[in-house]
Amino acid sequence: MVFTNLDKNSGLGALNTYLEDKSYISGYEPTQADVSVFTDVGKAPDSTKYPHAARWYAHISSYSPLPKGEIPSKIPTSNEPEDDDEDVDLFGSDDEEDAEAEKLKAQRLAEYQAKKAAKPKVIAKSVVTLDVKPWDDTTNMKELEALVKGVEMDGLVWGTSKLMPVGYGINKLQINCVIEDDKVGVDDLDEKITAFEDYVQSVDVAAFQKL
């Protein structure tokens, strides 16, 4: 990975974005690529503007400087004598890396959950056509229609209606409605309409279609 203009905001911005989910420029341990970019950056980036680049810079800074092009080794503490033959510990900050990875994972999970919660819930609806049959030809169909449309339920919207001949001078009321499936059932409508027993002989479902 090649980075340019690291002395400018554009270059540091690109580096910061690249290091958002990475600990090193290449691979899973310090390499010559880290040494090269570290040298080009020159000084610690602003942690407010470039938090990921600043984290990486501080981590690489914890290694003692060597000639350009070589991988740095860990700085010895004041209680530990320098030993040129001592193995280089390139994995001394695993806990820090694990914490960063867990923090990033938790952040992305929270963003996903928030996005999922903000998504509007789809309300399942259906169009129902009912045939409401009277007892005989003496039934006042206008009053029957008014009674049916007077049925109110949460999730129920009445639509158009018309009279259709059945025979022997008798008409049935065919009426449409839209229902929310989770709130209104066909059996509920049947029960409420047949409660007008002086007017209604029966209720049949002529059509049922999901929206």
From TrEMBL:
Region span, Disordered: 68-92
Keywords of this entry: Elongation factor, Protein biosynthesis
Acidic residues bias: start-end ranges: 80-92
Gene3D superfamilies given in the database record: 1.20.1050.130, 3.30.70.60
UniProt KW rRNA-binding keyword: no
Domain spans labelled Elongation factor 1 beta central acidic region eukaryote: 90-116
Database matches in InterPro entries: Arc1-like_N, eEF-1beta-like_sf, EF-1_beta_acid_region_euk, EF1B_bsu/dsu, EF1B_bsu/dsu_GNE, Glutathione-S-Trfase_C_sf, Transl_elong_EF1B/ribsomal_bS6, Transl_elong_EF1B_B/D_CS
A GO term from the CC aspect: eukaryotic translation elongation factor 1 complex
Domain Translation elongation factor EF1B beta/delta subunit guanine nucleotide exchange: 125-211
Signal peptide: none
Gene Ontology molecular function, alphabetical: guanyl-nucleotide exchange factor activity; translation elongation factor activity
Family indicated by similarity: Belongs to the EF-1-beta/EF-1-delta family.
Quaternary context: EF-1 is composed of 4 subunits: alpha, beta (1B-alpha=beta'), delta (1B-beta), and gamma (1B-gamma).
Annotated function: EF-1-beta and EF-1-beta' stimulate the exchange of GDP bound to EF-1-alpha to GTP.
Protein name: Elongation factor 1-beta
Encoding gene per record: EF1B_2
